[in-house]
Amino acid sequence: MEESMKEVACNEEVGTSCRKSHHPERVKKDLTTRLNRIEGQIRGIKGMIEKDVYCDDVITQLSATQSALNSVAKILLEGHLKGCVVERLSEGDNEVLDELVVTIQKLMKK
Question: Shortest CA distance to 110 belongs to which of 69, 82, 81?
Fold first, then answer.
């Protein structure tokens, strides 16, 4: 299958490109630990809502969870810049800069 056809097939199959990240195992472990903690925070917030906990307390927990998600995004963005972006630029693929701008815009619209 032609390379561009593979990319289209992957996009249709899972909604993302076929490119893969190359995070070291320690980074994957750190991200997974952080995401597991965030998952627990979300379950805790859900429980707070079910128990009619005071709104300000729920908002405080939401803020802490958002901060934790932002930390995950920062780690991923740093790895993306130092790894994927540098690699693609060295290969002469300047399209990665347009992708990076879109990614940063997505992060900043919060």
Answer: 69
